[in-house]
Amino acid sequence: MQHFINQKENMVTDAIDGTIKASGGKLTRLDGYPHIRVVVRSDWDKSKVALVSGGGSGHEPSHAGFVGKGMLTAAVCGDVFASPSVDAVLAGILAVAGPAGCLLIVKNYTGDRLNFGLAAERARAFGHKVSMVIVDDDVALPDLPQARGVAGTLFVHKIAGAMAENGANLEACTLAAERVVKSTRTIGMSLDTCTVPGSLKEDRIPHGMAELGLGIHGEAGVEQVASNGAADAIAKVTEKLADGMPRTPHVALVNNLGGASCLEMSILTNSLLASELGSNIRHVVGPDALMTALDMHGFSISLLELAEGDEKHLAQPVEASAWPGMNEIAEPDVLPLPDGLSPIRAPASAHDATKEFLVACCTVLIESEADLNALDAKSGDGDTGSTLASAARALIDAMDSLPLADHTQLYRAIGLELSQTMGGSSGVLLAIFFAAAGDASSSGLPMKDALRAGLDRMREIGGANPGDRTMVDALIPALDGLKTSMSSAATAARKGANYTATLTTAKAGRASYINADQLDGHVDPGAEAVARLFEHLAA
Predict the structure, then answer these.
(1) Which residues are identified as catalytic?
(2) What is the 3-state secondary structure (H, E, C) of 475-488?
């Protein structure tokens, strides 16, 4: 897999320099590249308890992204997925520790424990007050003698950081950190492992499966399970989190492990808040990439049982660039649509034959979803099938509210439904098509002429003409053929759709941005949908 890096041996120092230069002067670093890689607050005056954390790189924005007023004083960065050296940790401690002392926050990995632990001993020998807490929040593998430290570490950074900023002494910060560790539970799930730059990727998670409880360095989890969507993933994760968890108010940290999209993370958050545990969650941090595993396509959920003072410390403003803040969970007050957008619908009326006809048409589009998406992926953004199928499902759901016995009103009602439920330009164009057909029908035109009037209006507004490589290339001949028979219409629609595969220039839609080689030989998905619809009607 390709990466946007320069030399592999310089990627950590390059990343640190980029973070510091983009900080607006809030961050600096110690000398000693490449062996000493320590990011420090620029404004630090050693008047309060210092907080130092760190570990292997590859978890960005952790740990340097959490250096700033109200959180970490310094972050010690190792190579990718490798603990920093004892000297690097010691350098960080000596650079920031003052009379108030220094708290080390360490994730529970052998290298981190040893190197941070030895550095603490050496710093004490220099006369510094140093305490250390070990974070072991991962509940994925309960039989491990030492649980791993993962994204729950950020709760420790935030609460202890707020206390230190407010002037708490080292003992109070340490006790609070230890309590937060004991009250935090984390587990992750991923659809794929991560890719370490310069190394071969381990493809151990089969397609259609997800791994539950894998570590932030790609370590194997507790089991591989079937991947059945966001709600199912959250159900499997919360089952592990709920075991022994008190039913008291909690804050959730929703963490992107690096490769999940923002869209997926919002869906996962919604599923989490709708789960059985959702009623216990009072606040949420994220969703955001907070402690990643390079490009791992997964997420983790951390839950902290709230104690007195935690909400105040978690909500306290910080100057660390990567902390997204904490928000209270609240059901929104849904605002009504503005005047003019709430549609005035014709009264519903039943007509079994019309209902059967429409449901059959919608079913054709739903069953064609994957094929049309595949076609659109060759000349567009791969969503034509999903867009049409989504609108078809919505139309089926609304069927009993439509004026099925009045075709003039039915055209208009379908146009209104599509304008609200069908995305993209296709939804707008088809809404125009049916609205205009309704207007034509109300003036007394028969169905074939009304549909043709709808097509003319759609072309006038949308600007598509025959040969432009759109659905129009199939729809025009289909409606012309309808004057003879449904069979003629289906034959004409298929011929028009196939013709689009010979067109190497599109003059409308996203395909107009695609080069000729990508278009040649591929049928336009909108035209294909029209052809399949008429072929079904003619069968």
Answers:
(1) 217
(2) HHHHHHHCCCCHHH
> What CATH number labels 8-328?
3.40.50.10440
Q: What is the CATH number of domain 352-538?
A: 1.25.40.340
Could you give the CA distance from residue 518 to residue 381 in angstroms, rounded to a whole number?
13
Helix axis angle for 447-462 and 424-442, nearest 10°, is: 140
Query: What are the DSSP E strand ranges found in 150-201?
Result: 184-190
CA-CA distance, 268 to 230, in Å (whole number)?
A: 6
> How far is 459 from 457, CA to CA, in rounded Å?
5
- Kindly list the domain boundaries of the chain, sorted by start residue: 8-328, 352-538
Q: What are 27's two structure tokens?
A: 């961050």
d(CA 509, CA 379): 10
- Could you read off the pLDDT tens digit of each residue along the chain, which spans 539 residues? 688 999 999 999 999 999 999 999 999 999 999 999 999 999 999 999 999 999 999 999 999 999 999 999 999 999 999 999 999 999 999 999 999 999 999 999 999 999 999 999 999 999 999 999 999 999 988 777 789 999 999 999 999 999 999 999 999 999 999 999 999 999 999 999 999 888 888 889 999 999 999 889 988 888 999 999 999 999 999 999 998 889 999 999 999 999 999 999 999 999 999 999 999 999 999 999 999 999 999 999 999 999 999 999 999 999 999 999 999 998 888 988 787 666 566 788 889 999 999 999 999 999 999 998 888 887 666 788 888 888 889 889 989 889 999 988 988 888 888 887 776 677 788 888 888 998 898 888 988 888 889 888 988 888 888 887 888 899 899 999 988 899 999 999 999 989 888 886 655 554 444 444 555 667 888 899 999 999 998 87
